[in-house]
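Cross-posted from the bioinformatics board.
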Amino acid sequence: MRPALESSSSTEGIAENFNLLRRELDRYVIGHESLKEALILGLIAREHIYIEGPPGIAKTMLAELVSASANLDFYFYQFHRDTRLAELIGDMVIQRERDGENTELIVQSIRKGGVLTAELCVLDDISRSPGEALNVLLRILNERRFMNESIPLLTAIATSNPTADDYYNEPLDPANLDRFTIQIRSDGLIQENQWDKVKAVIDLYADTQFSDRIEPEPILNREIFDTAYRELHRVRVPEAVKRGLIDLLNRLVNQYKLDNTNSLITDRAFLVKGIKVMKAKALLEGRNTVVPEDLHILAFMTTFRVPEEIHLNMGDLIVETLRRIGE
Amino acid sequence: MYIADELRKIRRSLDSYVIGHEPVKESILLALIAREHVYLEGEPGCAKTLLAEVAAHSVNLKFYFNQFHRDTRLAELIGDVVLERSELADGKGEVVRQRVRHGGVLTADLVLLDDISRAPGEALNVLLRILNERKFQSQPIPLITAIATTNPTGAAYYNEPLDPANLDRFTLQLKITGAISTQKWQEARAIVDRYDGPPEEITVKQTVTADLLAEASRAIQGVVLPPMVMGAYRRFLDALLNKYGCNPSNSLLTDRTMLVKVPRMIKALALLQGRTTAKVEDLRVLKYILTFRVPEEVYNMLDEILQDIIEEQELAELEQAGDEELEAQQGQDAAQEGESEEQAAAGEGESDSVDDLLEALNSEDSGSGEHKPVQLQANSSGEPSSRYQFNAPQSVKNLELLLSRINGRLERNNSDSEVHPGGSPRTWKRMRSFDELLDTDPAEIANWMDWIHPSLPRVYRREKKYVGGEMVIVRDVSQSMEGRYARWTSSVVTKLVDLVRKKRMRIGYIEFNHVSRKYNYAGRFFTRDYDKIVEIASNVVCSGVTNYQLPLRDALKEFRARGTNNKHIVFLTDGEPTQGDWLVREERKMAKKLNVAIHTLFIGTTECPEILDIISEESGGCQFLAVPDELGGLCVEERPQRTQSGTTSRFHANNIANLRPPSSMGSLRGQLSMPSGRR
């Protein structure tokens, strides 16, 4: 049976809790290791996650699994061309109040719902959303505020099909894309030639009639998330890691000629949030200090921020940086 | 000085949250004391908003924050609507009056307008008027400073540039860049260290009050602006206009800003430095003002220009004063300058350059060939020296003009070329469902609720930003294009494809001479295979004569089944039509009907066929001319619009039938008193 949950504040306890979540994901979805890891890092660090991939590769399923197991107030929305703002944030209200003998005050407002009241959101097929709904939504995600009130949202997981002719969607603009700290491009097992895993999927879903009843168990709770977030900020970032980060960015800009015409290397994403995600990685592995190898998580952030050929090279680039700071 | 000390506290709290960005910090302070508005433009994630927020928190002022988006409603900005009803005295009717209960911008001292370029036109209109007049319905409002931030305008950000009139309301304008993108690695490192800890609320001790700012504002009036500084500023303006070619078409140098606000900002900078007398180096405040008001290349040289002006000013005074008085003057200057380190350093700098000039003067006396003073003389007499030749034709550079103009049209989504100086006007549509409730006019919906009626009240029309659309490149490959023109045209096509690629528009490609060749892939004309188009366009064979009609017809036919807007044809040619209907009457009608904008680029030294102007203007496209320059490149210019009054109507009314064939186009041009096709 499952070990009893404890909202232990020790780093090991936190790591254990999130590893349970990881195993739950593994029960239903084969492969997609980096996607799973990215999801969990995003949850710990309270950053938004953007997943792009062709239809039918378990994007949505993973997002749903995470939300069900995380046991948070959660809101799932599938975007379509006619998504209306009211569906996302709540119903429109008009209030008329007497404001004197002959005068009345007319206030147009919103009765909060949807994204505004959820702790975790899954925004499926986000790029199909019409512009006006998307604008408001992304602003809310970014500020985590609406009409000057904080909202309870921890993490939003957005999925999208690749932008191309065949899918009726439009690319997110860079400023909006930057709001999603973690960005993952995912492909099917078949496209990636992972035949052993393909077989495992067939086994899993042929033998059991799983697809009808995916009911993951609630593993985490809000308290665990809060504890983890507190612990996250106690994680130490040693000098070598900071040096490595700067070295890596320096080489991206100088050697690989990244600038704001071909990429989106913002101070916010890489200097502030990058560190945060590295800390999440440390926590997930039960450490309270970041190690230089944690720089590998930067590959979860460069997916749509740098040209594709450089993103594909990120692994090597990071290894090279590790070697340089090791010297 | 007490005011300067207090202001330094704001500066310190800015420093404690934000690393670097010195000019932005200084200009925010300047804005606060001079009661001006600030406009910050920069890439995402470079602390624009944070800077503004910290500034807002470090003064004890009523603060209003709004992040703009396409759905920003006016009520969010200025307050809710109040409806006032009263019976008429005779009981035969009712007066309904609409007011606004002040809120938001109307009641705040300090306003932060985040992402202002995303605001819908109707909200922006009212907002900018309020910022400018500092009044709402003739009541003064308490606003001191508004800080607006925005991402760079461009296709990728789905925003629209503020038009110049709006931009002028923001006296201080700055570009802001990230530490990584400008390779300030030490700053980057400092940011990592600074934000290494837990997230924090902005907590700043608010020592600066509205009273202090008011006092500072009064103190600015008391700052002395010596004639020497004003003289230098006059020379600076003179240089901008006469030497660097700033004119109304490329710059925004309004009297309000340049003559009223700049002197005040010079004083404000002096005050901020704790002085009561302005100095020539306070002219550097112009760097915070001219950012988007002069062409970028002029702005990039501002430091040098200012330096030249300062040197010139000193030279001029030297000439006046003569050698002997000079010593005394220097002594006076030094005495005036007090003893602080900074000032002493500045003083040294001045006397250094004075020494240089003295030396230079002496060497002129000795009569040797090329000296500094001669150069300086030349500068001040308005002769352009070689490095200032912005107007010189540069084939590559001016291609940007064409791209930016066409880009502008693409961004505006259709062929509408009308300029709305106050922002785009508000338009209405009928309400379709109650989801649009927040977009209704409040008074109208209130009335509707009292007398419910099958026809729903009106709502604001929101326009969805449209990425997509189609562009067809129509390219002349007649015999005369052979060689240089063909190569050059290919590079134009490549650039156009890049532009289109960025916008993810579909593209079509047609080459024509006396026949028209359409390129199809897998049975489709419009494609997003941009590389293929570039490849095809780089290998052309030129032969034959010119027929405008066929390719235009081919292109327009393709548009028939496409969407409703953002349809463009770029027509590249070097010759007059010699076959087909040279007036392309049918095609022009078709273009109008289909709402396709046809942009024309005429290459060559011969007169541009007038029909190209007509095509462009009728369809709302842009028109350009490319002429070879002495360097062997081609230089793009805009062809002037045929805007002379009467010209167009006369042309349309009856002369169209009398137009002679194109071979005598030149005389036709004279007859219709057209402006020359080339500048």
